[in-house]
Amino acid sequence: MKRNTIIAGNWKMHLSYPESVQLTEQILSEYKNYINNHTKIILFVPFVYAQSIARLCLHRGEIYVGVQNMYPEKSGAYTGEISPTMLNSIGIKAVIIGHSERRTLFHEKDEFLAKKVKSALEHHLIPVFCVGETFEERENNQTQEVIRTQVTKGLFDLSSEEIKNVIIAYEPVWAIGTGKNATPEQAQEVHSYIRSLLQTQYGSSVSDTIPILYGGSMKPDNAAQILQKPDVDGGLIGGASLKAQDFIAILQSVPQSNA
Questions:
Q1: Among this protein's residues, is 171 annotated catalytic?
Q2: Is residue 94 situated within a structural domain?
Q3: Which of 101, 123, 133, 171 is catalytic?
Q4: Which helix H or strand E contains 213, and what residues bound it?
Q5: Which sign does the torsion angle of CA 111, 112, 115, 120 carry?
Q6: What's the total number of domains in the chain?
Q7: Which residue of the set 99, 123, 133, 191 is catalytic?
Q8: pLDDT, tens digit, for every residue of 154-199?
């Protein structure tokens, strides 16, 4: 079954406002040369820039603007948090949920992340739900156990119709900003396992439609090999999304059969 290829940039806590505008304008000036109806771009920007970047990307059907976090409640006394209704009001289309940095640095647990996913869907936001193991867990042969727990607790309360609107990102924690990279074969192995979990829970008619992105230090020099794997449907790009030429080079790496 044909799935969209999704190239997503996670800017994290980087870039000044002028730099973010410049980066967006550079991407907008070039991206059309490398995609068609089966390739989508998501820019996950700092919330403080989100409305401005969304306006720059307005009427670009291939580009969505997202943010990197949200709180699951619609409103309330949650100082410093961002609600899904706020995101709706400024044209935001997607949100990252469960990034390893949120899990480790901010101690977000599976049950809380499940609430975020449910809330995002209820407010017509696309959740990009991140899963992944640490180096120690991989060395102890716990990768599948960790992935199974995160997927099951984070997503399996959703109905078949709800989960069709979720994007999953596999991000091996040991390959984020460490200089280490999962091989294309390692990425495919885990992506295939995630799809098998979805198939067991929801059936192949659902599991075959859900994009699974790779999020472990994808760069121009390894993107083509990773994106060729059958269960890898794109990338959640960190550092390489901060330079327009690198991000565009990854777009160029999308196999022509998927582009």
A1: yes
A2: yes
A3: 171
A4: strand 212-214
A5: negative
A6: 1
A7: 99
A8: 999 999 999 999 999 999 998 876 667 789 999 999 999 999 999 9
